[in-house]
Write a structure and sequence with these properties.
six-stranded mixed sheet, binds beta-D-glucopyranose, 28% helix, single chain, alpha/beta
Length: 767
């Protein structure tokens, strides 16, 4: 029933009676004005005096601030002052001022939220990690947690208590401009990494977030990563099984194992219903089924989208009623306090029940209590001596090292020996912007080169590594400064070709410039014609070419890949990505990352690794109907090379028959046959051989990254509950059917048979 509220008495999965008592007491003293104000979130730019200062310096308009916090009782603010990175001290000044004004007016602290998906996005001197997609490529859970811990600590130094991360969209359509913001295409990988990130952000006690931790906001709930058009914020069509089994999986895990305190709703629609109006997904699946007492915030202006974009409401007031009754607790209505007035009217008219308002406000106050804001409304730089420390930067470098993927290395082109003369070329060679991508120093990432003393581009890092006299630089293709992100200048390839004569190897740094969200929409996934032309003309010289890709999504390179001796996909490795790359190319560290997505080869062959059997019929049929169907990909999900060679042996399962309640134990021995210490992500896949719903060709079930010295062997043991092998049928029910399952690890496989069926009556396989 729309407008129903979740029972306030039902015990939440990690609720704390002392906090609940404080929630009761605070909410009982609040007026309706106070309550609707708590439910409204403004952008800091709405509080700005644009007539003062320079574009990068933020000045408050005190009258606007007063109107927001005194008159409208607004309880939350987001975003970066002046749209560009600030010092921690400036963050302290801005958030501190809002906090003082809010406390004086309301006696309830404001909560400030910022997008910090790969470290302190908008802070000078902070630590920027690789983007989340790289963390996915590392297949190392500890890195996800460590990156988040550092992000929380440095955010707190700025006074930021609430972080709009982790991103757990499934990046399953590589045309989409937000592919790089999540952990790749697979639901298990996203669930594992996102839950580690939530734990890293929030620390060990989600009811009492400590001074070094911050509240997480999982996003964007859900199904955002599969827009039918491939364009951002456009509709998705998702089957009931995929919705429950894949898209919901990371959120389920972040709530159940991670105790995530808040969620942001996806800006798109699923099967015709905008997610912000989806009562089933917000209230039933998340709040009721999981008994989750966390807080739900909209994405940017999304209640307005219900009427002025999606046309499921006639006007703003109707849209507010629809969204609040669907389960939205806080509206990110960045520039408009009208939300407060209209919501009050809706309550007076009985169109939004008072119980729903109380439920939303209880969630917001509980969230603020848990985040520690009532006891510690503000944190400041001076109390965070490790802000931007050497150790934090070393951790970001380590994350970059473990997240850069080696895709091709013919004739042992890499590593490059000392003394090798290198021609560095391509538009991404000398730019911090292209190492970081969007959400870096500015929303679109376009200011990244303005603020970077002490950080190295690929060119600078290669020069440091191989010596000035061995490295020359001729870009050949450049981006149009100040232009749109994809715009390039007229190519100037001849000088690069000429310079190749004096080089032993060409390192061609190609890919994409930075972008974020809808401005990153594309009409052609193929890498730009000029960049491909650069590689083609350089190939004529006969010098070996190493392609280094820095790009937020895998751009098609099928026509130039054969011209390269080696290919490295650095994806978006962050501020220390240049240094990491140089070290890897020099062979001072080994590659240990694997693709977290399927790299496409042709535009009409975009696929994911967990496709259906009918998508690949290798054998031609007989007679007139002698067609086949082929999955074509440049490189598969989970693919990645190393200098070392890792042998897999003794893949073993502890039983050949199992019942649905069993836990299977699988083990495999991995040996480093190479000559350097290294790390290997060991991935376990399964395949349901026959099922009543056509099964996925394979599914990632678990993984472990192991460190191995030269010659060393380790046995990796996986414990896999049989219930993990269940699937969701067309009616949305979990089901495990009897029959044969295959398990695959490296080049090895083994089988076991499930002997009995199990159907779960509960939505999330509760025992
Ligand atoms: C994005 C979100 C982000 C929000 C606040 C939106 O445009 O979709 O990812 O958290 O803005 O900046």
């Amino acid at each position: 029933m729309a407008g129903a509220t979740v029972s306030a008495t039902a015990p939440a999965i990690f609720s704390d009676p002392a906090i609940e008592a404080r929630v009761d007491s605070i909410v009982s003293r609040m007026s309706l004005d106070d309550k609707v104000g708590q439910m409204c979130q403004l952008t800091v730019e709405r509080l700005r005096d644009f007539s003062k200062g320079t574009p990068d310096v933020f000045h408050f308009d005190e009258a606007l601030l007063d109107s927001a916090v005194v008159r409208y009782r607004v309880g939350s603010v987001l975003n970066v002052p002046a749209d560009v990175a600030q010092t921690p001290e400036e963050w302290n000044r801005v958030i501190g001022h809002i906090q003082d004004a809010t406390l004086a007016a309301q006696g309830i602290p404001s909560v400030y939220g910022v997008d910090q998906m790969h470290g302190t996005t908008y802070t000078l001197g902070g630590t920027l990690f690789p983007q989340q997609v790289n963390i996915g490529a590392s297949f190392n859970r500890q890195l996800a947690r460590r990156a988040a811990e550092i992000c929380a600590y440095e955010s707190k130094a700025c006074g930021i208590p609430w972080i709009f991360a982790p991103v757990a969209d499934l990046g399953r359509d590589c045309r989409w401009s937000r592919m790089w913001e999540n952990y790749g295409e697979d639901c298990y990988l996203n669930a594992q990494m996102a839950t580690e990130a939530v734990r890293g952000l929030q620390g060990s006690d989600p009811n009492h977030i400590g001074p070094n931790n911050a509240a997480a906001c999982m996003k964007h709930y859900m199904g955002y990563g599969v827009p039918v058009s491939g364009k951002d914020r456009t509709p998705a069509v998702i089957s009931p099984s995929d919705l429950r089994e894949k898209h919901f999986a990371p959120y389920l895990d972040m709530v159940r194992r991670g105790n995530a305190l808040s969620v942001m709703i996806s800006s798109s629609s699923i099967n015709g219903t905008p997610t912000h109006a989806n009562y089933d997904l917000i209230t039933r699946w998340l709040k009721e089924d999981l008994n989750w007492d966390g807080m739900v915030v909209t994405d940017w202006g999304d209640i307005d989208f219900l009427w002025n974009r999606d046309r499921v409401a006639a006007n703003k007031k109707d849209a507010i009623a629809l969204a609040i009754n669907a389960g939205i607790d806080m509206s990110m209505d960045p520039f408009d306090t009208q939300f407060c007035t209209l919501l009050k009217e809706l309550v007076a008219e009985g169109r939004v029940p008072m119980e729903r308002i109380d439920d939303a406000v209880r969630r917001i106050i509980r969230f603020k209590l848990r985040a520690g804001l009532f006891d510690r409304p503000m944190t400041v730089r001076a109390d965070y001596p490790d802000f931007g420390s050497k150790q934090h930067k070393a951790d970001a470098l380590e994350a970059a090292l473990q997240s850069i993927v080696l895709l091709k290395n013919d004739n042992a082109t890499l590593p490059l020996k000392k003394g090798t003369r290198i021609l560095v070329t391509g538009p991404n060679a000398n730019s911090m912007r292209t190492l970081n991508g969007g959400w870096s120093y500015s929303w679109q990432g376009h200011r990244a080169d303005d603020f970077l003393p002490g950080r190295n581009t690929i060119l600078e890092a290669l020069t440091n590594e191989f010596g000035k006299k061995n490295v020359s630089y001729v870009p050949g293709v450049t981006y149009k400064q100040g232009g749109l992100w994809w715009e390039e200048n007229e190519p100037d390839i001849a000088p690069a070709v000429k310079a190749a004569a004096d080089a032993d190897v060409i390192v061609a740094c190609i890919g994409e410039n930075s972008y974020a969200e809808t401005p990153g929409n594309l009409t052609d996934l193929t890498l730009s014609a000029s960049q491909r032309q650069l590689v083609k003309e350089l190939a004529v010289t006969g010098k070996p070419i190493v392609l280094v890709l820095t790009e937020g999504r895998p751009r098609i390179i099928a026509d130039i890949e054969p011209l390269a001796s080696a290919v490295v996909d650095a994806i978006l490795p962050g501020d220390f990505g240049g240094d990491a790359l140089a070290r890897l190319l020099a062979g001072r560290s080994d590659f240990s990352a694997k693709l977290p997505f399927t790299y496409p080869k042709e535009i009409n062959s975009i696929t994911t690794y967990d496709y259906k059997p009918s998508e690949h019929i290798g054998k031609e049929m007989e007679g007139a109907y002698n067609y086949n169907a082929l999955v074509s990909q440049q490189w598969p999900f989970g693919y990645g090379l190393s200098y070392n060679k890792y042998d897999y042996s003794d893949f073993h399962i502890d039983r050949d028959k199992f019942a649905p309640g069993d836990t299977l134990t699988l083990s495999v021995t991995v040996t480093n046959r190479g000559s350097m210490p290294g790390m290997e992500p060991v991935l376990l896949f399964s395949r349901d051989m026959v099922a009543s719903v056509t099964p996925d060709i394979r599914r990632l079930r678990t993984f472990e990254k192991v460190s191995l010295k030269p010659g060393e062997s380790k046995t990796v043991t996986f414990r896999l509950p049989a219930s993990d092998l269940a699937f969701v049928d067309a009616a949305g029910r979990w089901l495990l059917e009897p029959g044969e399952f295959s398990f695959m690890c490296g080049p090895l496989s083994t089988q076991a048979t499930c002997t009995a069926p199990r159907r779960w009556d509960t939505p999330n396989r509760e025992p």
